[in-house]
Amino acid sequence: MSNDSYILTFACPNRPGIVAAVARTLFESGGNIQEAHQYDDLETNQFFTRIRFNFVSGSIASFEQAFAPLADELKMRWTLRSRAQRMRVLIMASRSDHCLADLLYRWRIGELAVDIAGIVSNHPRETYQHHDLTGIAFDYLPVTPQTKAQQEAEVWRIVGERQVDLVILARYMQILSDDLSAKLAGRCINIHHSFLPGFKGARPYHQAHSRGVKLIGATAHYVTADLDEGPIIEQDVERISHQDQPDDLVRKGRDIERRVLARAVFWHIEGRVIPNGRKTVVFRD
Predict the structure, then answer these.
(1) Are residues 169 and 278 in the same domain?
(2) Pathway, according to UniProt (predicted)?
(3) What does the DSSP 8-state code read for residue 120?
(4) Are residues 77 and 104 in the same domain?
(5) Residue 197 phi/psi, 5° resolution?
(6) Strand-strand pairing, 188-195 and 87-93
(7) Which positions ≥6 away from 251 have C-beta within 8 Å?
(8) Last residue of a domain, one of 47, 67, 82
(9) Are residues 186 and 117 in the same domain?
């Protein structure tokens, strides 16, 4: 039995027999199912599945050849990749570096099985002098309203030349243009605070404190042209009391942002997130 495992995800219109047909194709190709998740969205009549499998005999090539006609017949949107094939990740950050530091730590200890294609920042490398960036490409790309188009063209060049699979906005405090957002659709994750009620603009934690909020949180989502309104992957909250000062909210907010972004990135690289219109289906481990 092969130790290599693969992840198959798909979404398609629901109908009887989908699971049986896919399982039969895997079996006839020498495949062995190790983990399976499925979800039937009654609102959209779409069926979603994630399967992790390896081979007792046969090969991935023979399975793909057998599966492709079935996928066409069932009108599937599908992905298939080896778990040994590590995604190439580009991290974009600004002055606030807590999410960047957390991702680098998880990467170094092997929790995030990715290859870092580089770090892009609108602040110089010296901003992160207390981090170990040894061996990581760093691109300082300052941006102004006048240079935004040229700066984003350079970001897109880096994405292409370094074969980037996923862009992570780790508190990157610049709004991506509609054009770049569209180019990165489905492969760019952002993290931002989320309050009840919501506070936009400068010093959101101070605004929240002045209104006496009782909950603060964070949201990780895919980037779209609609600012901070892309399909949500993960969220978390923490209770706040009248004793908490603005600095307490900032500190607690950093912790929430770190863990929410890490979960979203992990689920994405594990193929556990499947787009569902303006929402996502997340098969948590």
Answers:
(1) yes
(2) Purine metabolism; IMP biosynthesis via de novo pathway; formate from 10-formyl-5,6,7,8-tetrahydrofolate: step 1/1
(3) E
(4) no
(5) -70, 175
(6) unpaired
(7) none
(8) 82
(9) yes
188-213: pLDDT as tens digits: 999 988 865 577 777 888 888 888 88
Number of domains in the chain: 2
Q: Which of 41, 228, 236, 255 is catalytic?
A: 228
The structure tokens listed for 207 are 């605004």
Any idea what DSSP says for residue 123? Answer: S
What is the distance between the alpha carbons of residues 274 and 121, in angstroms, rounded to a whole number? 29
Among 55, 82, 109, residue at a domain's last position: 82
pLDDT digits (tens, 9 = 90+) for 63-101: 999 999 999 999 999 999 999 999 999 999 999 999 999
Render 199-241 in DSSP notation, one character per residue: --SS-HHHHHHHTT-SEEEEEEEE--SSTT-SPEEEEEEEE--
Domain that holds residue 119: 87-282
Cα–Cα dist 269/113, whole Å: 8
Residue 132 and residue 55 in one domain = no
